[in-house]
Each structure stands twice: as structure tokens, then as C-alpha cells.
Amino acid sequence: MPGNIQFLTGQLRTPPMPTDDLTGRTILVTGANSGLGLDAAKLLIKLNCSTIVIACRDVSKGKATEDLLRAFSSQNGKKSTIIPFELEMTSFASVVSFTTRCKDLPRLDAVILNAGIAEVEFKLAEGYEKTITVNVISTFLLATLLLPILRASARKYSITPNIAIVGSAVHFWTDPKQLTKPASGQILKAVSDRQSADMKGRYFLSKLPVMLLVKYLGSVLEKSAQQDSSGKPLVVLNNVAPGFCVSSKSPPQINRN
């Protein structure tokens, strides 16, 4: 019950619109061609973000999104530099290749890991159920590989980079047996079993390990990250739950973040 109440009351709250001046910053957004990712990119332009790296599943979507975003202007009247990178989250090789390209960026101030899917049919990707591969495994593989790049920017520019991983309050609706019943160390294998997979609740299930892994990764960063001269951590990690929203106009779809 507390989880349901928290979820419902959360839908009635509208957070204040950011007003930060992002001049000079480089920010990466995954899943940037539609929905939350696209709106995040538009907002970054409005806030004067100098360079926005948009990660899309293929080159054509990246180019189309780049063209769309060029029509938007920042508050300071300057055009943001839009850099489209290809990123296929169902492929571990694509994730690794993508982060290799990110090493060539002059700086990286923040990443918004928004890319996610909600599958209703059982499919495998990299040997795991596709929703788990994209929403959980590839997301944290990406976060882990981007950490050294963010830390390098932190040292060079005396900044505190951020990793924002999109989660969801619907993780409350996960059947805990799906994560506690498997033998120790076999959770990902168990939830990728075609015969027992509950695809109706799979999106909810995928968001629970996201929250748990954010907490774990945060504890690891807190213990292992070097400190800059001001005593701030080199990278700040957070987990955001945007709430119900319409993520496209044609056809209408609900993004359950």
C-alpha cells in the first residue's frame, strides 16, 4: 500500500522547471529520438547547453533527431552543437563501441541514461530477455564504461559530473518472488526463462533491479571514488522517476517511467 500511495501522489506533483545555465557543458542523452529523451534534449538546448550528444538506435534516427533539434534556440541565442551517435542497447558490442567514441569528446559533464523498452512478447537479446538486456544490463554496462570518461572531465575541468539513470516508481508492483525465488547469482538467468516469464509485469520487474543497482553502484562510488580539492565526489549518481507521460503522438504510447 505505501508504494501505491507514493506512486499515485507522485503523479500529481509537477517538479519545478530547471533554470541552470549550461553554457560550455557537454551532456549525453540516450534514447534521444523520442519521448523523454527528446524532450530532455530540447530542454538542454533551452538551458544553453553547448554540446548535446544524442544516442539513437540507428544513424537515420540520429540524423532526423539532429535536424529536428536544430530548429530550437537557446535562451542566449546561440545554437547548440548536436552530435548524433549510434547506440543499440540490445547489443553489448554496440554499447562498448559507443563508449569508445565518447572517449574522443573534449569533455563530458553529464549523461542521462533514458533509453528503455517495454516488451510484451518474450524475446532474447545477448542471451537474456530483451527488456532485461536493455533496461538493466546494457544500461549499467554503459554507466560503468562512461565513469572513467566522466572522472577525466571532473579532474580536467574541476566539475562534478552527473549520471542520471531513468527508473520508475512502478518497481513497487514487481512480484518479489521473481527475484527472490531463483538460486543465488541466478536472477538474470531465471527471469530470462521463456516458460516462466511474466511479460505483463516485465517492465515493472526491470525497474526494480535498476533501483537496486543504482544504490549498489552509488555505494561503490562513495567508497572508491577519489575526491577533488573541494571534497566533492568526482561523479554524482541519481535515479529519477518521471511518472506517466505521453511519449509520442502517432500512435499514442504511454511511457511508464
Detail the topology: elements first, then pairings:
Elements: H1 2-10, E1 26-30, H2 35-46, E2 51-56, H3 59-69, E3 81-86, H4 92-102, E4 110-113, E5 124-125, E6 128-129, H5 130-157, E7 162-166, H6 177-180, H7 187-190, H8 202-224, E8 236-240, E9 245-248, E10 253-255
Parallel strand pairs: 1-2, 1-4, 2-3, 4-7, 7-8
Antiparallel strand pairs: 5-6, 9-10
Notes on the structure:
This protein is an alpha/beta fold. It has a domain at 87-255: 3-Layer(aba) Sandwich (Rossmann fold), CATH 3.40.50. 40% of the residues lie in helices and 16% in strands. It is built from 8 helices and 10 strands. It has helices at residues 2-10, 35-46, 59-69, 92-102, 130-157, 177-180, 187-190, 202-224; strands at 26-30, 51-56, 81-86, 110-113, 124-125, 128-129, 162-166, 236-240, 245-248, 253-255. The strands form 3 sheets. It has a 6-stranded parallel beta sheet with strand order 3-2-1-4-7-8, sandwiched between helices. Strands 5-6 form a two-stranded antiparallel sheet. A two-stranded antiparallel sheet has the order 9-10. Helix 2 (35-46) links the parallel strand 1 and strand 2 (51-56). Helix 4 packs parallel to helix 5 and helix 5 (130-157) runs parallel beside helix 8 (202-224). The model is unreliable at 250-257 (pLDDT under 50). Pfam families: adh_short (PF00106). Belongs to the short-chain dehydrogenases/reductases (SDR) family. InterPro entries: NAD(P)-bd_dom_sf, SDR_fam.
